[in-house]
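Holo model, zinc ion. Inputs:
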Amino acid sequence: MLSQPKPRCAHCGDFLPFWPSRAIASICPRCSRPLALVPASISVARFRIFSVLHAAKIVLLPVVGGAIVAFGLARMTPSAFAYTVALVLLAWGVIDVWDGTAGLESGIDKRGRSIYTGKPARRLSVAKTIFGAASLALGAAGLILIG
Ligand SMILES: [Zn+2]
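Output:
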């Protein structure tokens, strides 16, 4: 029989008591962050657990980079550039508000590689929620102004 390492949360690093069978996504019972499975091997059924919020933020970086480069090379109209930036701001806002409210709910937050609990975590979560809401408002205002 194969022994598998116990699954750990990709956000808080805590051991997960179970992973719902056949589910590709789940929520960490300790930190309330969304987690998803990605195949770690082509030949064997092995999976890695990753943090959905962290991955979504990283995926958006090349979008912003690409838009800036395309705009710089005059391959993009100013309104298309503004539209892209507004959409990314909206997406980042949703991610930050989700991360912040999950942190407020669970009392656990992460910044870089450090995990915070209690008061520092709450302060970080409030900051993330406010920053996310501001990002959402800015993105929405941008979309309204572009029309
Ligand atoms: Zn967790």
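The longest strand covers residues 34-39. The two ends are 61 Å apart (CA to CA).
Archived with the compound record.
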